[in-house]
Design goal:
By secondary structure, the chain is of the alpha/beta class. The protein is globular and about 40 Å long.
Amino acid sequence: MRKSAKAVQAALDAAGLACEVVELPASTRSAREAAEAIGCSVAQSDKSIVFRGAESGEAVLVVASGANRIDAAKVAAHAGEALAKAGGDFVRERTGFAIGGVPPCGHAHPQRIFIDRDLLAFDDVWAAAGTPHAVFRLRPSELEALTGGRVIEVS
């Protein structure tokens, strides 16, 4: 298992979750690719998008259903500041992971996290696990507990 995927597994273990990181031969870089590789719906495969607070400069992570387009203005209303899309260097520095593999946990620095309300409709969801080929499955309630994220409408 790659170093980044091992770091995610360590974060899951530390949180007391019985989730297992799985590395796949096919790409899981996008929610659509992940859904195809896993065999689940795109909506059930989450995507982790990092924004940068326009005033604070802080990272804001949105864990959204892969089927949804994130409305940055809706998320900004909850964040209390305008949001800008974060570049690759910022994402790696703040999370410790590259775009296309950003997990909802195990980040290099704490950040505000928002979870798409639509993910709560599923028994299980799939999340990125540190690389563009690694994922793990968990229940939405576990996602909330793992991240401390606030559930909001993001689309």
